[in-house]
Write a structure and sequence with these properties.
- The protein is mainly beta.
- Helices cover 9% and strands 26% of the residues.
- It is built from two helices and nine strands, in the order βββββββαβαβ.
- Strands 1, 2, 3, 4, 5, 6, 7, 8 and 9 form a nine-stranded parallel beta sheet that branches.
- Helix 1 (100-103) links the parallel strand 7 and strand 8.
- The N and C termini lie far apart (46 Å).
Length: 155
């Protein structure tokens, strides 16, 4: 059986890792209230349209991987000031269109943005040109075509 909700996880605030794989009926992470992950967070192959409940996670001591979620349109929901000690990987989310939260305080040692075919190249280029302090190492390729419609974030 595949997960349709995360009911029962509401009291968990710190954990060693979060791995949520291959749950196409899972469309929301609303039951997650984790604030600190000691290792990696891996969200792959789910039916999520947003990762909004990650709003509570302020620190990930490992990597954050958001890969192959075919309904994910936005990465809204990342906590302001989220610190990822390792690599933040955002790959193969075919309908992803917004990376706005990455502009406003999220940081990671490395950022990998690849294969998000609906994500405007302009938005990725903006991260590369204007947010290097937050992401000292950025690898971006095979994302969507360019557009002159950037996400407005006050800069």
């Amino acid at each position: 059986a595949r997960l349709t909700s995360l009911t029962g996880m509401g009291d968990l605030t710190t954990t060693n890792a979060v791995v949520i794989h291959d749950n196409p009926a899972l469309t929301s992470l609303t039951e997650m209230h984790i604030t600190h992950v000691l290792g990696n967070v891996d969200i792959h192959g789910n039916g999520l349209t947003t990762i909004a409940p990650l709003w509570s996670v302020t620190r990930i001591d490992g990597d954050l991987v958001v890969d192959g979620n075919p309904s994910l349109t936005r990465v809204d929901g990342l906590a302001p000031g989220l610190r990822v000690a390792g690599t933040f990987t955002l790959t193969n989310n075919s309908v992803l269109q917004s990376v706005y939260p990455l502009y406003v305080g999220t940081s990671a040692a490395n950022l990998v943005v690849m294969g998000n075919t609906s994500l405007s190249r302009y938005r990725v280029d903006h991260l590369n040109s204007s947010h290097r302090a937050q992401f000292p190492s950025i690898v971006a390729q095979s994302n969507g075509p360019g557009t002159s419609n950037p996400e407005n974030h006050g800069n």
